[in-house]
């Protein structure tokens, strides 16, 4: 997980000077301080809190669907469980960009999503647990005490779509289904913990909406807005680095389709699109364009256009990852690589510089 408070300090103290930031945009009049309080309030009340609530509610529906599947073991209930899983992926991917605050406490994020699994260690753990089929491993409490690789969405995807998933119908109430039911319940519980933290009136939401001496998170408006900018940049960066480049880095590097997130359920591109929808939702609903000085309003139009372009590009990719990385389709991925890099630079260097937060620090330098 990224050291968010370190990023904030670096951004404000001018360490790690970025030549890219200096050359990408000329000095501007800086942050619109008057707009900052309302931007932070909207970010919390209209984006973050509803995002986590939607995720928690979707995971509750997923748990119910898994319960029904284990009880009946029919194709119809399996289809409903898969549909509920897809729905949870969408809601999680939208709010997943907020990798700061309560979700990174006690490894809650990893409990919900363990990815990437670069050496396949997590997959082997899931396969071994299913093969062992110990009845003690079919409760939420039992799963919550195990490795993060056994607890979250990628584990449940394997249950529903991986080798041997036909057992979900062949063996009504079998171990595989009961394990998946427990995983779904664990995801629901973890999501509920994040929701509870954000819903507490005098907790993190108050700290975020009221920077200053009384805040546990931000010294002032500038530091708070830096955190929002970090969410935007790292949200876009995550799509490129941890999603797209996990499976495709360009024509000169062999593609790795089975490193793609959610490839078994064909949710790879849907998840990536939802990640960027989350970026766009924060950008637009929080009103982050209002932080720009009047002479830099064109930067906001550029970000809106680039987000639309890249989300549209993702929608045109083949959901079958093996097909998507074929020679006939690689031009689309090359375009996506270029567009994603451009989006990151625009948000970090152009927007960041325009509101006076990127001089002396580059959010996109990988630190």
Integer tally of domains: 2
CATH class of the largest domain: Mainly Alpha
Report mean pLDDT, rounded to a whole number: 91
Total beta strand runs: 0
Report the sheet with the most strands, covering strand number, pairing sense and barrel closure: none
What is the second-level CATH architecture of the largest domain? Up-down Bundle
Shape: globular
Helix content: 55-70%
Helix/sheet category? mainly alpha
Low-confidence stretches: 1-28, 359-367
Rg calc: 21 Å
**Which fold name corresponds to the CATH topology of the largest domain?**
Four Helix Bundle (Hemerythrin (Met), subunit A)
Distance between the termini: 12 Å
**SSE string, helix = H, strand = E?**
HHHHHHHHHHHHHHHH
Beta percentage is under 5%
In DSSP terms (H or I, runs of 4 or more residues), the helix count works out at: 16
Main location: other
Signal peptide: 1-21
Keywords: Signal
Domain Imelysin-like: 48-339
Provide structural commentary.
The chain is 63% helix and 0% strand. It is mainly α and 367 residues long. The chain is globular and about 65 Å long. α12 packs antiparallel against α13 (268-285) and α14 (297-315) packs antiparallel against α16 (330-354). The termini are close together. The longest helix is centred in the N-terminal third of the chain and has 37 residues, at 36-72. It has 16 helices and no strands.
């Amino acid at each position: 997980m990224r050291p968010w408070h370190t990023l904030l300090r670096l951004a404000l103290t001018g360490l790690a000077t970025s030549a890219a930031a200096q050359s990408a945009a000329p000095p501007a009049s800086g942050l619109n301080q008057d707009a900052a309080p309302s931007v932070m309030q909207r970010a919390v009340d209209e984006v973050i809190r509803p995002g986590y609530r939607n995720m928690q509610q979707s995971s509750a529906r997923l748990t119910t669907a898994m319960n029904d599947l284990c009880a009946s073991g029919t194709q119809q209930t399996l289809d409903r469980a898969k549909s509920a899983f897809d729905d949870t992926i969408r809601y999680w991917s939208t709010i997943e960009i907020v990798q700061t605050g309560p979700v990174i406490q006690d490894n809650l994020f990893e409990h919900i999503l363990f990815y990437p699994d670069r050496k396949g260690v997590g997959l082997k753990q899931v396969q071994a647990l299913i093969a062992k089929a110990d009845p003690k491993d079919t409760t939420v409490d039992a799963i919550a005490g195990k490795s993060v690789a056994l607890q979250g969405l990628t584990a449940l995807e394997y249950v529903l779509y991986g080798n041997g998933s036909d057992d979900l119908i062949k063996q009504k109430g079998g171990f595989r289904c009961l394990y998946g039911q427990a995983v779904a319940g664990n995801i629901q519980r973890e999501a509920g913990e994040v929701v509870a933290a954000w819903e507490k009136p005098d907790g993190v939401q108050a700290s975020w909406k009221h920077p200053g001496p009384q805040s546990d998170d931000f010294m002032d408006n500038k530091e708070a807005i830096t955190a929002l900018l970090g969410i935007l940049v790292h949200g876009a960066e995550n799509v490129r680095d941890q999603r797209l480049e996990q499976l495709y880095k360009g024509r000169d590097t062999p593609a790795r389709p089975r490193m793609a997130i959610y490839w078994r359920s064909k949710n790879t591109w849907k998840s990536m699109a939802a990640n960027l929808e989350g970026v766009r939702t924060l950008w637009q609903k929080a009103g982050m364009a209002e932080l720009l000085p009047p002479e830099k309003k064109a930067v906001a139009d550029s970000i809106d256009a680039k987000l639309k372009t890249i989300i549209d590009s993702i929608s045109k990719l083949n959901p079958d990852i093996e097909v998507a990385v074929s020679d006939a389709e690689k031009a689309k991925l090359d375009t996506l690589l270029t567009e994603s890099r451009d989006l990151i630079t625009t948000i970090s260097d152009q927007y960041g510089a325009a509101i006076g937060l990127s001089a002396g620090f580059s959010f996109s330098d990988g630190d």
